[in-house]
Structure formats: structure tokens, C-alpha cells
Amino acid sequence: MIQNKFDELIFNENDVCNLLMQGRNIESLSNMIVDDSVKLNAMPELLGPVPNFKQQRFHAASVPDWHAQQQNNWHMPQKYKDLDIAEYILSLCTNETELQRCGEELLLYQERNLFNLLRYLKYLVDIMIENKIIWGVGRGSSTASYILYKLGVHRIDSIFYKLNIDEFLR
């Protein structure tokens, strides 16, 4: 397995066979990118029908352009993609000060087209809680975001510590 300049993992025939031998379901592998030289349809019939794997593709776009194109590819359940994140965050507020701060921050997130990021962070925190994964209390400029505090990404109350959101979204 190699990683290309776009941080995509490219699997070869041995990688795919190893995953299958480890008991991975063939359908669960259908979104992986496989090197063009792999002739998976020639695999033994023991595996059953082989899905159409994405073939390695050579991107003409620059890395920043490619990342911009990938902004819509958020791998999370549909219920999180459909979540009205602004309404959800505002529902977590318990007083006028919190509502005011979250409203201001939501406008900044919206201007930067970051609502999908907030949805993904909600999903990530839910998964970590569900699986009892421990994460840090907060680090760097992210602690200036009260919205991230309300979502549970960090545990630093930026209103209490009077942290300015401009420190985060510069």
C-alpha cells in the first residue's frame, strides 16, 4: 500500500488479498483505490463476485484544488450530513451569553463554509463517546471556539476564560 500526494491510500493486489485473508468482507473493500495493474476480476471464484474497485487515477489538479474538490466528501452517516448543525448548537445553549457567542461564531463558520466540518466533529465526538475513547482537554487556538466546546471537541470554556474567537478563525 502506498500513499499518493493527495493522501489517498493506493492498494496493490497483495494488499487486497491480505485483507481478504484476514476475513474482510469483499463489499466493505469496494471503496478502496486499487492500483491499475491489479487484475482483481481474475481472482479465484472462491471470493464470489468482485466489486468494481476505484482504479488509481492521476490527478491533473494541484493539491489545493484537489482538497477543495474533496470538501464535499465527508464520510459520515447520513443523519449527520442532514443535521441542522446551527439549530443543534443553539439548542445546547443555556443562557443569552451562550446564544450570543454561538450565534456570532456560527456566522463565522458559515462564511468559511465550515458547517460540514462541524457536523463531522459532532459525529466524531459521538463515536469517541460511544467507543469510550479518551481525547485531550483542548489544545492551541481551537480552545477559543465556544462552539467546539459545546460540541465536546475540547473542555475549555472560552466564555469563562474570555478567549476571543478571532484567535481561532484567523
Q: Strand order across the biggest sheet? A: 1-2-3-4
What is the helix/strand order? EEHEEHHHHHH
The overall pLDDT, averaged over residues, is 81
Largest sheet: 4 strands, mixed
Number of helices: 7
* Rg, Å, rounded: 21 Å
Distance between the termini: 37 Å
Q: What do you see in this structure?
A:
There is one protein chain. The protein has 170 residues and is mostly helical. It folds into two domains: 2-70, no CATH class; 78-167, no CATH class. Helices cover 39% and strands 5% of the residues. It is built from seven helices and four strands, in the order ββαββαααααα. It has a four-stranded mixed sheet with strand order 1-2-3-4. Helix 1 links the parallel strand 2 and strand 3. The radius of gyration is 21 Å and the shape is elongated. The two termini are 37 Å apart. The relative contact order is 0.09. The model has no long low-confidence stretch (mean pLDDT 81).
Short recap of the structure:
The chain is mainly α. It has helices at residues 13-21, 63-70, 78-81, 85-91, 96-111, 115-130, 146-151; strands spanning 2-3, 9-11, 33-34, 54-55. 39% of the residues lie in helices and 5% in strands.
Give the topology:
Elements: E1 2-3, E2 9-11, H1 13-21, E3 33-34, E4 54-55, H2 63-70, H3 78-81, H4 85-91, H5 96-111, H6 115-130, H7 146-151
Parallel strand pairs: 2-3, 3-4
Antiparallel strand pairs: 1-2
